[in-house]
Prior knowledge:
Radius of gyration: 18 Å
Structural class: alpha+beta
Oligomer: single chain
Strand content: 15-25%
Distance between the termini: 40 Å
Shape: elongated
Amino acid sequence: xxxxxxxxxxxxxxxxxxxxxxxxxxxxxxxxxxxxxxxxxxxxxxxxxxxxxxxxxxxxxxxxxxxxxxxxxxxxxxxxxxxxxxxxxxxxxxxxxxxxxxxxxxxxxxxxxxxxxxxxxxxxxxxxxxxxxxxxxxxxxxxxxxxxxxxxxxxxxxxxxxxxxxxxxxxxxxxxxxxxxxxxxxxxxxxxxxxxxxxxxxxxxxxxxxxxxxxxxxxxxxxxx
Length: 225
C-alpha cells in the first residue's frame, strides 16, 4: 500500500475508534492540517474503498474502516509496546492484590476499566469469569440487539471458547478481528496466556487495538516480575 493511503487509513481508523462516527474529508483536513484539499482526500477515500479498506455507510456521509481496513491497520501500525505510565501504575497495583475467589480478578477489573471493554479470564482448572459487560454494552455498536445476543451467547459458552483459545499460540497478545473473533463477527478481542491462564479484552471491532495490546503486554510483564 502506498504511504499516502496507509497514512490516511491510519488517521481514519484512529478517528473512528475515538468517535464511533464516520469520518469526513473536510474534518480530516482541518483537524490534521493535511497539505492537500478535501477533494484530494475524497479521491483517496475512493481508492481505499475500491480496495475494500473503507466503506461509506451513508451516501452523503464519510467513511468507516471495514474488517479488512482494521486488519491492515493492525498489521502496519500496532506494535508490542508497554502501556502509558498511568495505566502501568493502575495495573501494577491491581496485579499485587490477591482475591480469594480468583487471583486475577482485580487485574481483570483494571483491564476492563482501562480498555473500556470487558475482560475475560480462564484458567486450566476451568475457573472462568468476565467483568466489564456494562461498559462494553454501552458502546454504540451494542445498541444492535443481535450483537448483544451473539456476545452473551459466546460468554455463556466461555469454557468452550477457552478450550479453543488454549490450542492457539498466545505467548504474545493475539488480536482477533471480526470473522476471526469467537465472540461475534462485529467484535474484536486481544488474548494472551499468563502461565496456565488465558486472559483477554473484548470490545466492538472498533476497539483501540494498540492500547489493548499494550495493556496485556504490561500485565504479562508485571505478573512475570
